[in-house]
Design goal:
- A hairpin with a 2-residue loop joins strand 6 (128-131) and strand 7 (134-137).
- It contains eight helices and twelve strands.
- The strands form three sheets. Strands 2-1-3-4-5 form a five-stranded parallel beta sheet, sandwiched between helices.
- It has helices at 11-23, 34-43, 60-70, 84-93, 105-120, 154-164, 173-181, 189-203, and strands spanning 3-7, 27-31, 48-52, 75-80, 97-101, 128-131, 134-137, 142-145, 148-150, 170-172, 213-216, 220-223.
- The chain has 227 residues and is an alpha/beta fold.
- The chain has two domains: 3-120, Response regulator (Rossmann fold, 3-Layer(aba) Sandwich), CATH 3.40.50.2300; 128-223, Arc Repressor Mutant, subunit A (Orthogonal Bundle), CATH 1.10.10.10.
- The longest helix has 16 residues, at 105-120.
- The mean pLDDT is 88.
Length: 227
């Protein structure tokens, strides 16, 4: 059981989230705004924060910034469909993932489980990662599919290693440029797209219908764990 703090100014949504998370076995506290959420978190830290972005009493962006100043707690943000710029901004502010409204309970619980697993295991990457018949050895930088070696360039492997530090999570183009290229000048979103496309051609069964490395429209990429 994990302690989760839910922050939303809509009482009906707070109740819905509290009920479904409680049924999943979590201990849930709620707050109606950012300021009260920070006060509650400081008195009794949670293991996961779920917050809406648009709240009159201290918006979600301010809450994410404040929580990131004092804690590394995983943060899941609830966003409105179509607000791509807000999604990018909140990820750059320090949120870990998002769910777009309207959302299904199963999707929400899956995001919660992924964030809690990642947080419990530190960086989230073991020396050897196996996803279906794809095997990635971080220490030797070797990648295999069905026992056959896949040759990646240093940049492609760095991209893959970066994605594996946050499986299931979203990476924006700016975050990838900072993590893989060290924020080097001249590295644009187009450069990222080219390298991601090359990586897909090597690790996906069908690069035209990727199942592992999927695009989050107008935001970036998500690396999913294949069933």
């Amino acid at each position: 059981m994990s302690r989760i703090l839910v922050v939303d100014d809509d009482p009906e949504l707070r109740k819905l989230l509290r009920d479904c998370l409680s049924r999943a076995g979590h201990e849930v506290e709620t707050a109606a705004g950012g300021r009260s959420a920070v006060d509650r978190f400081q008195k009794s830290p949670a293991e996961l924060l779920i917050t809406d972005l648009s709240m009159p009493a201290g918006d979600g962006f301010a809450l994410v910034r404040e929580l990131r100043r004092i804690s590394s707690v995983p943060i899941l943000v609830l966003t409105v469909r179509g607000d791509e710029h807000e999604k990018i901004r909140m990820l750059d502010e320090g949120a870990d993932d998002y769910v777009t409204k309207p959302f299904g309970v199963d999707e929400l619980l899956a995001r919660v489980r992924a964030l809690l697993r990642r947080h419990a295991s530190g960086r989230g990457t073991s020396p050897i990662v196996t996803i279906g018949d794809l095997r990635v050895d971080i220490s030797t930088r070797q990648v295999q599919r069905g026992g056959h070696e896949i040759r990646l360039t240093p940049t492609e492997f760095s991209l893959l290693e970066t994605f594996l530090t946050k499986p299931g999570g979203v990476w924006t183009h700016a975050q990838l440029i900072a993590a893989v290229w060290g924020g080097a000048e001249g590295v644009t979103s187009d450069v990222v797209r080219v390298h991601v496309g090359n990586l897909r051609r090597k690790i996906e069964r069908d690069p035209n219908r990727p199942r592992l490395l999927v695009t989050e429209p107008w935001v970036g990429y998500r690396f999913r764990l294949e069933d």
